[in-house]
Amino acid sequence: MKKILTLSAILFLSITSFAQCKYNEGVSNDDIQLFYQWKRAKLFDKNSDIELRIKIKNLKKTAILVDFNADYYIDGVLQETSVIEDFCIKSKRTARGKVNGIIIKPTPEIVEIREKENFKLEFSGLKSEQTEACAEK
User: Fold this and answer.
1) If you count DSSP H runs as helices and E runs as strands, how many of each does the chain have, helices first?
2) Distance CA 16, CA 8 (A)
3) pLDDT tens track of the chain, all 137 residues?
4) Most CB atoms within 10 A, among 18, 36, 69, 79?
5) pTM of the entire structure?
6) Are 58 and 64 in contact (CB under 8 A)?
7) CA-to-CA distance for 65 and 95, rounded, in angstroms?
8) From CA 8, how far away is CA 11, in angstroms rounded?
């Protein structure tokens, strides 16, 4: 009986953890694909800060440096911009949110308005350039 309860608990936690891993499609070009998700900083803490977690897929056979902006709009009016510069991703790899440190911590104002119907998140200035800075080691 204990084994069944333990297995059920593990299965439940696995399902809920994986269900929360879905990223939304952001933007892409020939070199990279960018995805995002809004998450709490601490998984089961409803009072923890909201973060914008980014996932970037490097489609090239070389390491690249990635730059982009996260632009927050209300009714088409830009409210704020977060900038990511020189984020290095190894060839044919994927960098993910908390694991690789691609996290944007928006201001409290953005957290408050992000669920409004007229809120829009856009990614702009997406650039990538080949580098040896983080090449395979």
Assistant:
1) 3, 8
2) 12
3) 667 766 666 665 555 444 456 899 999 999 999 999 999 988 888 888 999 999 999 999 999 999 999 999 999 999 999 999 999 999 999 999 888 889 999 999 999 999 999 999 999 999 999 998 786 55
4) 36
5) 0.78
6) yes
7) 12
8) 5
